[in-house]
């Protein structure tokens, strides 16, 4: 099995992806400030390109 970049980090400039640093839950869509799974505010936007 070969993993591609999109399998690991599904960056898309047209859709926002957020991940909770506390529980690891991921969600897409509208900007959010709290995790829907655990209620934490430790979210970061995966859609921001990193090099």
UniProtKB/TrEMBL annotation:
Source domain of life: Archaea
InterPro entries, per the entry: DUF7129 (IPR055553)
Family annotation (Pfam families): DUF7129 (PF23455)
Ranges of residues in domain DUF7129: 8-51
Protein name in the entry: DUF7129 domain-containing protein
Organism: Halogeometricum borinquense (strain ATCC 700274 / DSM 11551 / JCM 10706 / KCTC 4070 / PR3)
């Amino acid at each position: 099995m070969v993993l591609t970049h999109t399998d690991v980090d599904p960056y898309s400039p047209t859709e926002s992806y957020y991940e909770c640093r506390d529980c690891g839950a991921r969600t897409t869509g509208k900007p959010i400030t709290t995790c829907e799974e655990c209620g934490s505010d430790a979210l970061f936007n995966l859609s921001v390109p990193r090099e």
